[in-house]
Amino acid sequence: MTFDELTAALLSRPAPVRLVAVDGPGGAGKGTFAARLARSAAGAVIVHTDDFASWDDPLGWWPRLLEQVIDPLVAGREGRFQRSDWSEGRLAEWVTVERAPIVIIEGV
């Protein structure tokens, strides 16, 4: 299946927002795949789970992603979260996640 075919298949599903999770081990090409899918689906948004995780909390980020991004998008609103600054070990600037027909969660 090509990226254009995948995009068409996703957009054929009746939903205001289609969440696409891209998972895999480190170095598997998740970011490359997500970027290529986003280019194919003009207007798609990519949310990187690295923006939620941290050295102190590498796995406990899921509730924040759900509450601040996924739940609002599904409810018809934009998402908004503070990006994790790995080098400073703290939360950094706020990031707005616009509603889009396809939202890609990369790094699951």
Helices and strands, in N-to-C order? HEHEHEEE
Which stretches of 5+ consecutive residues score pLDDT under 50? none
Radius of gyration: 14 Å
| Binned strand content | 25-35%
- What's the arrangement of strands in the largest beta sheet? 1-5-2
Work out the number of β strands: 5
Overall morphology? globular
Helix content: 25-40%
> Please, how many helices?
3
**Major sheet summary line:** 3 strands, parallel
Mean pLDDT across all residues, rounded?
93
Which structural traits does this protein have?
about 110 residues, three-stranded parallel beta sheet, 5 strands
Descriptive overview:
A hairpin with a 4-residue loop joins strand 3 (79-85) and strand 4 (90-97). The two termini are 22 Å apart. The strands form two sheets. Strands 1-5-2 form a three-stranded parallel beta sheet, covered by helices on one side. Strands 3-4 form a two-stranded antiparallel sheet. It contains three helices and five strands. The chain is α/β, with parallel strands linked by helices and 108 residues long.
The gist of it:
The protein has about 110 residues and is of the alpha/beta class.
Topology (elements, then pairings):
Elements: H1 3-11, E1 18-22, H2 30-40, E2 45-48, H3 62-74, E3 79-85, E4 90-97, E5 102-106
Parallel strand pairs: 1-5, 2-5
Antiparallel strand pairs: 3-4
